[in-house]
Amino acid sequence: MKDKVISKNTIVRDTILAILASIIGIILISLLTHNWDFLSLIKSFNFLYISFAFILMFLNWFIEAYTIKLVAKVLGYSIEMKEAMKIFLIGGFISRITPFAGGGGEPVQMIILSKEKAIPPGDSAAIISIKMFIGTFVRVSAFLFVPIWILIAKPTWGISEAVNILINTGIVITLILFSALLFMILKPDLALVITQKALNTRFLKKIVKERTRNKTIEWVEKTVNDYKLAKNKIFSLKRDTLYFVFFLSFLSWGMILLTPVVLMRGLGIMSPWPEIVITAIIFYISSAYIPTPGGSGTAEIELLALFSRLIPNPLIGTFIISWRFFTHYFLLIAGGIATFLDTLFSRKRPSKSSK
Predict the structure, then answer these.
(1) How far apart are CA 74 and CA 160, in angstroms?
(2) Which string of DSSP letters, residue by residue, matches 120-166?
(3) What is the pLDDT of residues 334-352, one digit of tens each?
């Protein structure tokens, strides 16, 4: 990535930690399900369902990249599809090697848009934050169906108190961050106020030079003003495009939720699909901010606790690892390759305007 958006040493270190966390997760599942013969169980997968799962995964990647292209287009910036895909893959990779899955990807995507596509920081922030808001809104909207389903189906979860606490904590954090994101979109001046108050504290005055503090405040003020102009332009022009982005986000989310259903059918598991989808929604909402790289290790344990009532042993271990491959490991690998290639060749191409 141009101008060392993230240092190479940090990427290498976090990648190693993410791989180790993933290996630990696989080992834990193997121990808890008392099954190490995954190869024979994987061979039992129906090839048609595996192919369908790959199609869902690649379509989801395409939609995520295409939404970046669409939102940028509303602001008058032209981004090629391959560039949008690269931005998505790099963001997905960073989110999977940093704690609190998804928390590190979006800032990197904003920086790439600004550095490599010469899009002003405020516009870059508007493009990614509005896309992020729409995606979060879709997930929270889907989660609203969970209480209704619980009232109707009255499922017996049979999960431990620790996992229940983890689920509730994740839900609360998701709702808090969603509210904060909404507030920041509606009141972007808050970022400037927080920056001014923070840099003018007695502690930071002692360690940060006045010139540096003033430059930082000026940069944040300019970014906030650019962001407000970009946000107003996005919401005032081409609303049909924004509605289409909402539709694509719902479609993308539907593909993600359909993946565990497809994988279960591929293993010959005929649990009711509504229960599978609702359980997947609860998992995604509650595990979005697990403090391990990409949620690895902890996510596998939570999946085991949530899906054990729907999947018999030893198939549950195979299901969990295969699902993580389609939703986590494949993007980790593809995003890692995209990040490596972009870092390798970025010095050879000049930054240019994309308007």
Answers:
(1) 47
(2) -HHHHHHHHHHHHHHHHHHHHHHHTHHHHHHHHH-------HHHHHH
(3) 999 998 888 777 655 554 4
Predicted TM-score (pTM) of this structure = 0.76
DSSP H helices in the chain? 8-33, 38-43, 47-74, 81-97, 105-116, 121-143, 145-153, 161-186, 189-199, 202-207, 210-236, 239-266, 273-287, 298-307, 315-324, 330-345
Locus of tokens 């962001």: 227
d(CA 247, CA 72) in angstroms, rounded, equals 17
Of 119, 32, 49, nearest to 297 by C-alpha is 32
Q: In which residue are the tokens 């550095």 written?
A: 115
Angle between helix 161-186 and helix 273-287 axes, rounded to 10 deg: 70
CB 343 within 8 A of CB 2: no
The tokens for 329 are 């490991």
